[in-house]
Write a structure and sequence with these properties.
By secondary structure, the protein is of the alpha+beta class. The protein is built from eight helices and 23 strands. It is globular. About 3% of the residues have low confidence.
Length: 415
């Protein structure tokens, strides 16, 4: 069954937890005992409705403060699809959590309180969806019940957000505006009778209709090898397969491929998903590939189609979001992890940082601190088989690892 990954973002009290709880409730994804527990907790709080936000605030600090701190993965399904929601925090001090939580999302849901309109954090949330090149963004104008379901307020916020989109670099992004009240379920899974002026899809209808596979399958095929399979059995004595997850694009049986970095050529003989032979693999599929000839291929290498070769990079420019309390400064050595390939790397230059509220570039910075984003150049000990993030997001990102602590300290997007 198809899996859609969603990232949510919103400011304090925009109703994000209630929205997620409403989706779980209206797709029958809550067990009876869990629902009873939520009902009891709601009564203890003195409210006369089921407080669905309690379903997602997992940390005690989140419940006490009414905010999201950590990233939580939440699951629900419909008859046609499975969904994974990365419930990401919206505060500046948790920017790193939002970026890591939203990095694999196909759709982002940005909540805006209908009473307050676009606020500072809205700019930050939208910038991150642009940075990550998330193809679909739902701008959910929530709490419409508190403005008497006024169309004028909805249209005003929509116009403000469209002005924000004019500053964006990723113009291929598709926006969908939905007026909603997650507390009462207006326009979440069914049309609201209070807003008959709205003619667009409800939230669940929109999520059911997005076609994300076709977008990611258009990227050049990239198959990083994770493991070489050589079974020690009589039945599979001569079997030699290459296991991995197809990062992007499509690969088919019979395709002419090139092994990188050796540049040896071969043809795909078979593709296996578990023990089933299949004719093609698409982006996100974990498969085993066998080739028609014996070539040198091991973990960290990559299979690509002969007519879609990436340019190996030893020097690269990138935007980096810094995840560590110790600032990033030029001259320090790190380990750069790109797919299954790990190489030594040095940050050679720090050009500028980004104010992700007003999108202004700050020149002449000497370091990048925790949760900040900047432009850097990096030199690697061996070539990295990468694409630019704009041309292939599934093969254009990397992480930086501190050699001493083995901690992930940065996430980068190749420019």
């Amino acid at each position: 069954m198809d899996i859609v990954r969603i990232a949510t973002a919103g400011s304090v009290d925009d109703g994000k937890s209630t929205l997620i709880g409403r989706l779980l409730f209206e797709t029958n994804s809550i067990t009876a005992d869990k629902l009873e527990a939520i009902e009891r907790a709601s009564k203890r709080r003195g409210v006369d409705y089921i407080d669905l936000s309690l379903l997602t605030d997992g940390l005690i600090a989140e419940r006490e403060q009414g905010i999201t701190i950590d990233v939580a993965n939440i699951y629900f399904s419909t008859p046609s699809r499975k969904y994974i929601i990365a419930d990401t925090p919206g505060h500046f001090e948790y920017t790193r959590n939002m970026i890591t939580g939203a990095s694999n999302a196909q759709v982002a849901v940005i909540l805006i309180d209908a009473r307050n309109g676009i606020v500072e954090q809205t700019h930050r949330h939208f910038y991150i969806t642009q940075l990550l090149r998330i193809p679909y963004v739902v701008v959910c104008i929530n709490k419409m019940d508190l403005v008497n379901y006024a169309q004028k307020q909805y249209e005003s916020i929509k116009e403000q957000f469209n002005d924000l989109f004019e500053k964006a670099n990723y113009k291929e992004q598709q926006l969908q505006f939905i007026p909603a009240s997650s507390l009462y379920g207006d326009n979440i899974s069914t049309k609201s009778t209070q807003m008959d002026w709205y003619k667009g899809p409800v939230l669940l209808e929109f999520l059911e209709g997005i076609e994300w596979h076709s977008l990611e399958n258009q990227f050049p095929p990239r198959f990083p090898v994770q493991y070489v399979i050589r079974p020690k059995s009589e039945q599979w004595h001569d079997f030699r397969g290459f296991a991995g997850k197809l990062a992007s694009g499509l690969l088919k049986k019979g395709d002419a491929v090139v092994a990188l970095p050796s540049m040896q050529e071969s043809t795909i003989e078979n593709i296996y998903r578990f023990e089933e032979a299949i004719d093609q693999a698409e982006s996100g599929d974990s498969v085993v590939i066998t080739l028609s000839s014996e070539i040198d291929l091991s973990r960290g290498d990559m299979l690509v189609k002969k007519d879609h070769l990436p340019a190996p990079m030893k020097e690269l420019s990138a935007q980096v979001c810094w995840l560590d309390h110790t600032p990033l400064k030029p001259g320090k050595n790190y380990l750069l992890q790109h797919g299954s390939n790990r190489v030594k790397a040095k940050v050679t230059n720090l050009f500028s940082s980004i104010n992700i509220v007003d999108y202004q570039t700050i020149e002449g910075v000497e370091e990048i601190g925790l949760n900040e984003i900047g432009y850097v150049s990096i030199k690697t000990a061996r070539p990295v088989l990468a694409d630019t993030y704009a041309s292939n997001k599934r093969n254009g990102a990397f992480i930086l690892i501190d050699e001493g602590t083995n901690s992930t300290v940065g996430v980068g997007f190749i420019g």
